[in-house]
Amino acid sequence: MDGSKKWGIIGPGKIAAKFAAALALTEGAELVAVASRSGERAREFAAKFGASRSFDHYWKLAAAPDIDAIYIATPHGFHCEHALLCLKHRKAVLCEKPMALSNRQVQEMVSASQDNKTFLMEAMWTRFLPLTGKLLELIGEGKIGKLKYVRADFGFAPPFNPEGRLYNKELGGGSLLDIGVYPLFLCQLLMGEPSRIMATAQLAPTGTDDSCVATLHYPDGGLAIMTSLYSCQTSITAEIAGTEGIIHIPTPWYKNDRLTLYRRGQEAEDFQFEPMVNGFEYQIRETLRCLDEGLIESPYLSHAFSLSMSRVMDAIRKQCGVYYPGE
Ligand SMILES: NC(=O)c1ccc[n+]([C@@H]2O[C@H](COP(=O)([O-])OP(=O)(O)OC[C@H]3O[C@@H](n4cnc5c(N)ncnc54)[C@H](OP(=O)(O)O)[C@@H]3O)[C@@H](O)[C@H]2O)c1
After folding, report:
1. What is the pTM of this model?
2. Nearest in space to 9 (alpha carbons), one of 104, 96, 132, 134
């Protein structure tokens, strides 16, 4: 596999398995090492996905000399710590979403990327799906006129487990950071950073947000509504409306391969995109492209974008009374 980038994974849990499956089918990349807090889990995961090496400590992977890039798949309470560890050893980092718990942590990570001249990107994979490219193209071409409104939701009903990463504050629990990050990403991508935010949440017994709703107001009069819920399944759809039309992304909007354009006075137009491996392949390809070009950030999902997202999430959490340890 000459010229292929050597990848490692930190935190071989649920999402790491999905990533490894996509990596295996991506040209120019190979999984060579896996690091877990347990040597046995690392060995099992490495064997399952064909990695030749496994480590029983995360730092051993970060320090391994022949690794080009590391995918961080630990709960978000640890993203900052693990990204700093990798960046210090000048390993490119693709870090699961949300980039970190707070804007302060994201700032630390971005500084480490800049100081070490090493690539860092939030694994907000939806950004790189063909659907998102088409959405930006349609809006850019003025197909729905002037953009006025975005609405997106993400809700499901996991069992309440105060120890698990969805509810445990130490692990970065809460619906906003876990799934609200998707609707927020869409609002941010299409509308930019809001000038005014009004947010409210229902808190779980652990003090994390069980559900969260935010209205985002933009300087040009645009409005967005984002919803994240752990209390029930929602439609998981997105609607983007302008002065001349509407774009509707059916469920599940954040990983779909089709959308519909409704222009005033015209027939609805459906767009269908190529079949995906599992959707993660596009962000891997973008990481490889950036590494080939010697970039430390992707122009399509920049450090500034992740900083802005984390600033907005901080503001939403503050209004909802959700704080993480150390804040
Ligand atoms: N992009 C997506 O579609 C998507 C979907 C789901 C989740 N995510 C993100 O991916 C990250 C991981 O989510 P996940 O569902 O894969 O989590 P998970 O399976 O619960 O945990 C991932 C791994 O993190 C490691 N870990 C390190 N410290 C831990 C601690 N104190 N408690 C529990 N685990 C710890 C564990 O591996 P070892 O102990 O073996 O090292 C664990 O297997 C989260 O930030 C989440 O937001 C992204």
Report:
1. 0.98
2. 96
